[in-house]
Write a structure and sequence with these properties.
mainly beta
Length: 317
């Protein structure tokens, strides 16, 4: 299998804002003080499939500027749709149809009725195989096509990635539908594994892709004070080949810390409990799929007080 990634969105959207009658326009503009503004934005239109591709059920999501969904709809048998969302928040529609790349159509109006017809573009199927560092398939991994088109907003990119994502089956396989020429990267994530992301895929898009999600490890253990009591609330700092800059974890009421899944590698670990600190644990190895226990003991530390001054001689480097 070739290693590559995918592309995400393409559509041709034709917009025509519904022309209100003069009386309707007058009523819309004549909002008296104290009256509520229009409560909803209604978008109407049709979804048109590429020639030769049979119509399939289509899901339509209305999103806000951050890419969060604020309305849902599905097409009728003739491809028409009607979707409604909060006035003033609607930014775009994301249209998803099985076997085709998701498409985005921006909404230029913030209230009233708008008509947007969306013509879906054909795509390419990308077969993705996800395996761990031991070569075993990773079922249930989420595989995401991340569109990189600079003309898209961050919210549109997030929404398109969400619409185009798929979960791997029992054999670790998933099929994505991508636009063959759109710049795209592919990411994958799964519980207990280190996430992965490809470089941007080059056109023409590949037909298959292998991704590796290494099994994550973890660190946990007790943090003790000098008298042997648990150091509840102690801050444990972990830094190393898989965590940079340092990550901090808080010991629970029993004085135990837990990193959760972290990449395999070598780490330095230290605990701080007020003025008390633990000796720096160096070279702590975390293996793939392993849960390592580490005990940390804090003791009062010293403080250094003083003044730092700078000296510079003109003319010398």
């Amino acid at each position: 299998m070739a290693i590559a990634a995918i592309a995400a969105v393409a559509l041709l959207a034709t917009r025509r804002e519904t022309a209100p009658t003069p009386s309707a326009a007058a009523r819309r503009d004549a909002v008296r003080p104290g009256e509520a503004a229009p409560a909803a934005l209604v978008v109407l239109g049709r979804v048109v499939f590429p020639p030769g591709i049979p119509d399939v059920p289509v899901g339509i999501e209305m999103i806000d500027g951050a890419g969060e969904p604020i309305g849902f709809a599905a097409t009728a048998g003739d491809g028409s749709y009607r979707i409604e969302g909060p006035a003033g928040r609607a930014a775009a529609l994301v249209v998803s149809a099985g076997g085709l790349p998701p498409a985005v159509a921006r909404i230029d109006s913030r209230s009233g009725d708008v008509t947007i017809d969306v013509v879906l573009a054909p795509g390419t199927s990308l077969d993705v195989a996800v395996r761990d560092d031991a070569g075993s398939p990773v079922p249930g991994a989420v595989v995401v096509p991340e569109p990189l088109d600079p003309d898209l907003t961050d919210g549109e990119r997030r929404a398109l990635a969400r619409a185009g994502s798929r979960r791997t089956d029992g054999s670790g396989a998933a099929v994505l539908s991508i636009h063959p020429a759109a710049p795209t990267a592919i990411s994958a994530r799964a519980d207990g594994h280190v996430p992965a992301r490809t470089d941007p895929l080059e056109a023409p898009a590949p037909r298959s892709l292998e991704m590796e999600l290494p099994r994550a490890g973890s660190l946990s253990g007790p943090v003790d004070r000098l008298d042997g009591s648990p150091a509840a609330g102690a801050i444990v700092r972990v830094v190393g080949s898989g965590l940079w800059p340092a990550a901090e974890f808080v010991a629970d009421a029993a004085g135990r810390f837990a990193t959760g899944p972290i990449p395999p590698g070598f780490y330095e670990v230290e605990a701080a409990d007020g003025d008390a600190v633990s000796p720096l644990a160096r070279g702590v190895e975390v293996l793939p799929g392993s849960a390592r226990d580490l005990r940390l003991a804090t003791a009062p530390g010293g403080r250094v007080a003083g003044r730092v001054t700078a000296h510079h001689e003109i003319g010398r480097a």
